[in-house]
Amino acid sequence: MEPTPELSPHHAYPDHWEADVVLRDGGTARIRPITTDDAERLVSFYEQVSDESKYYRFFAPYPRLSDRDVHRFTHHDYVDRVGLAVTIGGEFIGTVRFDRINEQGRPASAPADEAEVAFLVQDAHQGRGVASALLEHIAAVARERGIRRFAAEVLPANNKMIKVFRDAGYTQQRSFEDGSVHLTLDLEPTEKSLAVQRGREQRAEARSVQRLLAPGSVAVIGTGRTPGGVGRTVLRNLLAAGFTGRTYAVNRAFDEGLATLDGVPAHRSLGEIDEQVDLAVIAVPAHRVPEAVADCGEHGVQGLVVLSAGYAERGSAGRELQRELVRQARSYGMRIIGPNAFGIINTAESVRLNASLAPEPPARGRIGLFTQSGAIGIALLSGLHRRGAGLSSFISAGNRADVSGNDFLQYSFEDQDTDVALLYLESLGNPRKFTRLARRTAAVKPVVVVKGARHSGTNPPGHAVPVSRIPDATVSALMRQAGVIRVDTVTEMVDAGLLLAGQPLPAGPRVAILGNSESLGLLTYDACLAEGLRPRPPRDLTTAASPQDFRDALAEALADGTCDAVIVTAIPWVGENGEAETGDGEVLAAALRGAAAGGPAKPVAVVHVEIGGLAEALAAASSTAAPRTRPTTLAGRPAAAPGAPTGAAPPTATAPTEPGTEAPAETAGTAGTAGTAEPAEPEAAEPPARPGRIPAYPAAERAVRAMAEAVKYAQWRRQAATPGKVPEFLDETTDEPGAAALIDTLLGTAPDPRGRPLTHDEARELLGRYGIPVRPTLPAPDPEAAVAAAARLGYPVALKTTAPHLRHRADLGGVRLDLTDEDALRRAYAEVTELLGKPAELLPVVQSMAPRGVDTVVRASIDAAAGAVLSFGLAGAPSELLGDTAHRLVPATDRDAAELIRSIKAAPVLFGWRGSAPVDTPALEELLLRLSRLVDDHPEVVSVALEPVVVAPQGLTVLGATVRLAPPPPRGDLGPRRLPNY
Description:
Layout: E1 19-22, E2 28-33, H1 39-47, H2 51-58, H3 67-74, E3 81-88, E4 91-101, E5 114-121, H4 130-144, E6 149-154, H5 159-167, E7 171-177, E8 180-186, H6 191-213, E9 217-221, H7 230-241, E10 246-250, E11 260-261, E12 264-267, E13 279-282, H8 289-298, E14 303-306, H9 316-331, E15 335-337, E16 343-346, E17 353-356, E18 364-371, H10 374-386, E19 391-396, H11 405-414, E20 420-425, H12 431-442, E21 447-451, H13 472-481, E22 485-487, H14 490-502, E23 510-515, H15 518-530, E24 534-535, E25 539-540, H16 547-559, E26 565-570, E27 573-574, E28 580-581, H17 585-598, E29 604-608, H18 614-619, E30 696-697, H19 700-720, H20 729-732, H21 736-747, E31 756-757, H22 760-768, E32 777-779, H23 783-793, E33 797-801, E34 815-819, H24 822-836, H25 839-842, E35 844-848, E36 854-863, E37 867-874, H26 877-880, E38 885-889, H27 894-902, H28 921-937, E39 941-951, E40 956-958, E41 961-965
Parallel strand pairs: 5-6, 9-10, 9-13, 10-12, 13-14, 14-15, 18-19, 18-20, 20-21, 21-22, 23-24, 23-25, 23-26, 26-29, 29-30
Antiparallel strand pairs: 1-2, 2-3, 3-4, 4-5, 6-8, 7-8, 11-12, 16-17, 16-19, 27-28, 31-41, 32-35, 33-34, 33-35, 36-37, 36-39, 37-38, 39-40, 39-41
Helix pairs in contact: 6-11, 8-9, 10-14, 11-12, 14-19, 15-19, 16-17, 23-24, 27-28
């Protein structure tokens, strides 16, 4: 029985349409369906819209809404008539509505697939990206309801609204009819519309972080009346850092007569402050936080740093408190860092913000740091400070309920004060988005990541995010594909960050080694080989080497065209009495910096053993003062010191321009609402030239590992400049419509959410649609059937068991090869059944023999969090026992496929190892591309395993295939932009 319209499930309130979004200026708003309870909100909203905006909306003066209008605009069936509203603080600031129409433009129901759409945005909120966000969401709703086109009527004078439609990136048609512009938008997402959407998302999220890090005023809520405590500590640190904005101390327990505290205005609530507060640092007990957040929201605060603990790290009850905290803050348009955060720092001279618990703010530098752990944040700040490194910004996100590492990447991409982004992450809320953003950021500056909680299988307390099922090794491979420098420890992160922030990228893996210790040079040489670098024989300057000797040797190495990087090793000079003389590290540092400044731009790292002041002097920025000389050498002998060097800035690459990245004009109109155009954003300026800092390391292994990461990253940058392609032949040799029809048939009209595995014949048919032939197998339930199968296939044949516990286990005797005649087949059948069990248990099959080659395994699977992943390895022990498997995200390009088969440790087996014949790797690359295309085109294909794939010197053979179909998991990264709800 068909449900009546009143009982149709489509008429239920669609809560999955609700979404929090970041607007163009960095503030947040909520988008939700309009309900019958919104009548008063709608009337109040309309009263605040200007007459001009009303005219553009209704094409005539329309001062107020009638009761009939209010009823019509608040009563929807959520199928043919849908209305969405944007709210801040519970009040409407914008609306959009569509009505399904037929070809004559009259109201209609399905299967009509066109709808008329209209927008209205409050004048005070025009220019914030409200209409463009509404268009993304109403288009997604329309597609869900079977609507494929929007029609809009716009007055010719409403150029801004026309531009909003035009800039959305959808395919559109335009005509002039009856005094108005008639626009038709095809709602099928295009490459351009997706690029526009992501460009707007990037700018909005970057701006939201920038507002937090560069406020004009800060209020510390919960400032203690006596020294000590979290709030008072933050206030003290704000003042000590010299914050350039206005600072306020807020505590409801202050005495009414208290006017100042530590020299700043003291207030009992934000309402007592005469001007707007941009940032609030909340340091009150968790049960008082909602009151503080409400006070902030009602007084226009733009962002919050919540230091208070007692949330998701305390269990399920705390997790619900955390979710309510986020909902409350976002309802007022505010973003949150925290809760349970350590704070934020911005060292820019124009800001000088230390709203954290760090007692000693870092020096100004070019490294941006994001951490999900306060303890790790403290350790990183301390480590960077000890080694003389400065930061541009620092965010310790605590439970990361809102602002995340993804937001930090958006900000780092645009921040001209940041050259390197360091992230300590314990969870990835949206791995697909992370890899996309990391790839974009890594194209212009290094991204170094430490991933904690790698092997626990769960997220750390407080991180309420989806748990990915993919192994950590796969996560690491996918990060590498995105250009992320993933390291194992925070020490390695600091080591790599120092090198990347202060030195140019190496042009290749060739490393020159020089120093005054033969032993330390050999240790460095061995470490280079272990890391895959190509070191030259170490040059021993002997222990008598002076700083001038070091300078000359370094200058010579840098000028040598056969080396791409230099590692300098140094130990204290040993005097005639046998005692070590640490000498003057500043003199040696000046010599090395002088050589580096005067030579070609190549990275230099120093390994030193107990040379006092060397690391600090190398880290110090060079000045513009005249060169100074020192009368002694490292060993105490006279020598002139060089002048201060200028160093070399790391080369920058130009990020590929994405369509739609320019700021579009915004409007409140609809098919007719007026608005103001958003001013174009200024072009990013080149970062100023700055002195290079030569990083120093206490161990050769650490310096070499950092250099190796720089080499791999530089290689990725060069390759990313010319991305790979999907070969055109795939379009000519695949049957996408046929595969789609087959999948629909196999899944049926009511597919099981758990999915279903395909039979051997079904899998062969589906893979065949994409040019992947699978060698047929015939069942052999008894010897006679086996003989008949062999006669049909032709000798020689193989007899294989397919029981799950014996599949692909030739070592257990379940596979017999090269059976050339009936007698051999019968004999093998008897041996297998006698050894392993009855035929009904073994499920034997017969298959014709394939040309000899290397057995490999190719897989593709879809992880709900990370997306589709393509994997490759050698069959058997290399992949199963040793984990020697490589991974790439789908869709894979020709370069990805080539790198995939070459990145496993056992790859030499494919290329003629120990005199064997090289196999047909081009055929293997083609197979990888075809499988990638299949799972990319059809997300219902949730897993495929081709095993074994025998790759011969000429061609390959797929001997086994398992395929599983299921309803496709949701793709949040392809829908309208929205903030995650953890």
